[in-house]
Amino acid sequence: MSATVRIPTPLRKVTNGADRATVEGNSISEIIESLDNQFPGIKKRICEDSGELRSFVNVYVNGDDIRFSDGIHTSISSGDEISLVPAVAGG
């Protein structure tokens, strides 16, 4: 399945400034692998060594937070839009 990933500003150093990428995959984990094939090193910035998402990275599929579905195993359909959103802390 082909999906579009929106790249947040802090990760654009890895994507040579690209703010979005078209990637292939049937799940978030496959999408991340495909993204890492295009932009080597991006996976290390968004995933732990175990492959799980880092706690400060939120991922949305068509606006829905994957934490409330199947996490990195969330299924992807062709044309889905995936947003990588770094958590913001403040007070």
Q: Can you lay out the helices and strands and say which pair or pack?
A:
Layout: E1 2-6, E2 20-24, H1 28-38, H2 42-46, E3 57-61, E4 64-65, E5 81-86
Parallel strand pairs: 1-5
Antiparallel strand pairs: 1-2, 3-4, 3-5
Considering the chains and any ligands shown, give keywords for the structure.
alpha+beta, Ubiquitin-like (UB roll), 91 residues, globular
Quantity of strands, as a count: 5
Low-confidence segments, ≥5 residues, pLDDT <50?
Answer: none
Number of helical regions = 2
CATH topology: Ubiquitin-like (UB roll)
CATH C-level class: Alpha Beta
Shape: globular
Mind describing the biggest β-sheet?
A: 5 strands, mixed
**Architecture, CATH level 2?**
Roll
Structure description:
This protein has helices at 28-38, 42-46; strands at 2-6, 20-24, 57-61, 64-65, 81-86. The protein has a single domain (2-86), classed as Beta-grasp domain (Ubiquitin-like (UB roll), Roll), CATH 3.10.20. The chain has a 5-stranded mixed β-sheet, with helices on one face. The protein is built from 2 helices and 5 strands. The termini are far apart. With 91 residues, the protein is an alpha+beta fold. The mean pLDDT is 93. β3 and β4 (64-65) form a beta hairpin.
